[in-house]
Specification:
The complex is a heterodimer. By secondary structure, chain A is of the alpha/beta class. Chain A has ten helices and twelve strands. Chain A has a single domain, classed as Alpha-Beta Barrel (TIM Barrel), CATH 3.20.20. Helix content of chain A is 37%, strand content 29%. Chain B is globular, with a radius of gyration of 16 Å. The A-B interface holds A 1-5, 40, 45, 67, 70-71, 74-76, 93-99, 118-124, 167-168, 196-198, 221-222, 251 and B 14-15, 17-18, 21-22, 25, 50-52, 85, 115, 119-128, 146, 148, 150-152, 167-168, 187, 189-193, 195-196.
Chain lengths: 252, 210
């Protein structure tokens, strides 16, 4: 049976892992390779790197991190942040990424999803959706690290990226990100039920019950978390044992 | 004893670096090549790949790799491991976005995984294997070992070639085997310790027949 995945997420800037609240107020969490190796040993199912560097002159740093990580960590690696062209996708895949996540550029130029998935295959293309509630039961897609409201309905956009060839959706609730109040479950469920591709829930995990809720109530295929793992509150192994005890299929 | 020499065939279909990293971790001498003449002195060949079947066959054809590959495997008995799309290319044909001929090394066809309610496509993540042919690929690996899959198409073939199966609401062939030709639908290079164990088993097999 296919296991539900637990994916630690590493936000990387200037070669370091950082973590903020609602996309601001960053604090240092350590060296990306060391952290990825630790999660691998704890049994993480994948690792995601998001390059949150604002300036393009530091972009090459992430390529070196991806190369170093791929040499040492033998689990799938997703990389996102600053992907604008099919060429950016290729560079990250060649550096050792297994999947590439795109966000702002996909909104500005939806053809990028089609072009990239046609070239490298849908299974390599993750579309990240940063969603924020604008009314009860209604969420909009935001870009530029959460500063721009695109006016797009998050669920409609999810269906569109699937039709364009995305292989997976990384869904982040901006209202919950960094709050430790748990996933936005209605949002997660709304998107999960609307598409036939896997959905990764993100944003707001503060305890292990939140991870289990993301799968059982949000119907997510994978759950992504950062701070609960970075700062040693829980190990990935503990998270998996917790979920297994609640009848969720995990890889132990 | 000199290290086992593995040639990874690079035909422009996705990342070969992680496959190289895994074999290097096992102490192999690894060469990544798209030169057909390089196929001659390797101990074994690895055909990785992600992406679309038709484009993959076109790329192999443009690089004039198809005949040297068949020659190395069928006439020289060189062991071959296909990974993911590389396994699917071993088949006779594929119905992925059209109709394409494959390498014809293991009788079979590639078709889309049927949609089963409650199961998403692509099939992404860790799924466990039911082992059909324990030797050599699954040696020392327990039944129900989980490996990392990411694909939307499956290999359909006679059960005698099936080395492992997985369940995704429908039967999915996880590994194939015919004499010295092997294929795995999952990514051993991304399947942590058990994946490295499987690659170790392949290398051990190469050494045993070399």
């Amino acid at each position: 049976m296919l296991a539900k995945r637990i994916i630690p997420c590493l936000d990387v800037t200037a070669g370091r892992v950082v973590k903020g609240t609602n996309f601001v107020g960053l604090r240092d969490a350590g060296d990306p390779i060391e952290i990825a190796r630790r999660y691998n040993e704890q049994g993480a199912d994948e690792v995601t790197f998001l390059d949150i560097t604002a300036s393009s002159d530091q972009r090459d740093i992430i390529l070196h991190i991806v190369e170093a990580c791929a040499e040492q960590v033998f689990i799938p690696l997703t990389v996102g942040g600053g992907v604008r062209k099919v060429e950016d996708v290729r560079r990250l895949l060649n550096a050792g990424a297994d999947k590439v996540s795109m966000n702002t550029a996909a909104v500005q130029n939806p053809d990028l999803i089609f072009d990239a998935s046609s070239k490298v295959g849908s299974q390599c293309i993750v579309v990240a959706i940063d969603a924020k509630q604008v009314a009860p039961g209604k969420w909009h897609v935001f870009t530029h690290g959460g500063r721009n409201d695109t006016g797009l309905d998050a669920i409609e956009w999810a269906k569109k990226v699937e039709a364009l060839g995305a292989g997976e959706i990384l869904l982040t609730s901006m209202d919950r990100d960094g709050t430790k109040n748990g996933f936005d479950l209605p949002l997660t469920r709304g998107v999960s039920d609307a598409v036939g591709i896997p959905v990764i829930a993100s944003g707001g995990v503060g305890n292990l019950q939140h991870l289990a809720d993301g799968v059982s109530e949000g119907r997510a295929d994978a759950v992504l978390a950062a701070s609960i793992f970075h700062f040693g509150e829980y190990t990935v192994r503990q998270a998996k044992e917790y979920m297994a005890a609640r009848g969720i299929e995990v890889r132990l | 004893m000199r290290p086992t020499r593995i040639d990874i065939i690079d035909y422009g279909m996705g990342n070969v670096q992680s496959v190289r990293n895994a074999f290097e971790r096992l102490g192999c001498e690894v060469r990544v090549s798209e030169d057909p003449s390089a196929l001659v002195d390797a101990d074994a060949l690895v055909l990785p790949g992600v992406g679309a079947f038709g484009e993959a066959m076109n790329n192999l054809r443009e690089r004039q790799l198809i005949e040297p590959l068949r020659e190395a495997v069928l006439n020289q008995g060189k062991p071959l491991l296909g990974i993911c799309l590389g396994m699917q290319l071993l088949a006779d044909s594929s119905a992925e976005r059209g109709s394409y001929s494959g390498l014809g090394l293991i009788p079979g066809q590639v078709r889309e995984i049927p949609v089963v309610p409650g199961y998403r496509l692509p099939h992404i993540g860790w799924n466990d294997i039911s082992i059909r042919l324990p030797e050599p690929l699954f040696d020392k690996l327990p039944e129900k070992s989980a490996f990392y899959f990411v694909h939307s198409y499956r290999f359909e073939c006679d059960s005698r070639y099936v080395a492992g199966m997985t369940d995704y609401g429908t039967d999915v062939v996880a590994a194939v085997q015919r004499e010295r030709i092997f294929g795995v639908q999952f990514h051993p290079e991304r399947s942590q310790r058990k994946g490295l164990r499987l690659l170790r088993n392949f290398v051990d097999f190469v050494e045993s027949v070399g």
